[in-house]
Design brief:
The protein has about 240 residues and is α/β, with parallel strands linked by helices. Helix content is about 35%, strand content about 10%.
């Protein structure tokens, strides 16, 4: 049987953006011992790795693991290949198609890594900040995908098959708007100045303000009646 000292462990996928940081705060508020996983997948916005380090450093994470998985060698996405990141796309269009910023099988790869680490840690809960409302149309953010992955996880690993752990894929933000996510994070003490919003930052790391990620984030803060503190330089 899993040691009771490990019963409250959780693996949290952390990218350094609003959603994953808020998800980490939710896990912290529920009393989990936090193990954060960030993936360096060859993304053009690698500045998010520094944001993930900043976030995990102040949020009581026991261990922050950064894994190198060079998905840029596969390509097929504006985030990992020599393709233009779309700019100034309307919100209506964002929800109508799968954009070129979709990274092939990204969440399946990330969640598989998290599952492997969770099995080693004896952690039954995996948190991921996917969202099915204010997002860019990615198929691996939908509730039916999450449900399917959880079923697969409990068929795939020894600790589950032998009855020691029942894995749960926790998605506390999946049915929230971006403004609701931001309000939740603020209530949980998240400092969004530590996060990073952009798919296509400039050489100085500043957000472009025009990609889907920037536009969705800006609207979220505006609808929450707040200004985005990440627009100011991080000390």
């Amino acid at each position: 049987m899993t040691d009771m000292s490990q019963a409250s462990r959780a693996v949290v996928l952390v990218s350094g953006g609003v959603d994953s940081t808020t998800c980490l705060a939710v896990a912290r508020s529920e009393g989990y011992e936090l193990f954060a996983l960030t993936v360096n997948y060859g993304q053009r916005h690698r500045v998010e790795l520094e944001a993930a380090r900043r976030v995990t450093a102040v949020m009581g994470v026991r261990e922050h693991l950064i894994l190198d998985v060079p998905l840029n060698r596969i390509g097929g996405s504006a985030l990992t290949d020599d393709l233009d990141v779309p700019k100034d796309v309307s919100f209506e269009e964002m929800g109508s198609r799968i954009p070129v910023t979709y990274v092939p099988a990204r969440n399946t790869i990330f969640l598989s890594l998290a599952l492997g680490w969770a099995e080693v840690l004896g952690a039954g809960d995996i948190f991921v900040g996917v969202n099915a409302l204010d997002y860019s149309g990615y198929p691996d953010c939908r509730p039916e995908y999450i449900e399917a992955f959880e079923r697969m996880a409990n068929l795939a690993v020894r600790e589950a098959v032998e009855g020691r752990i029942r894995f749960r894929l926790r998605t506390p933000l999946i049915h929230l708007t971006k403004s609701e996510i931001i309000r939740k994070g603020m209530a949980l003490g998240v400092d969004y100045k530590l996060t990073h919003p952009c798919y296509d930052p400039g050489p100085d790391g500043r957000a472009c303000g025009r990609c889907d990620s920037c536009l969705l984030r800006r609207r979220g803060f505006e609808e929450a009646g707040l200004s985005d503190p990440a627009l100011a330089p991080v000390a």
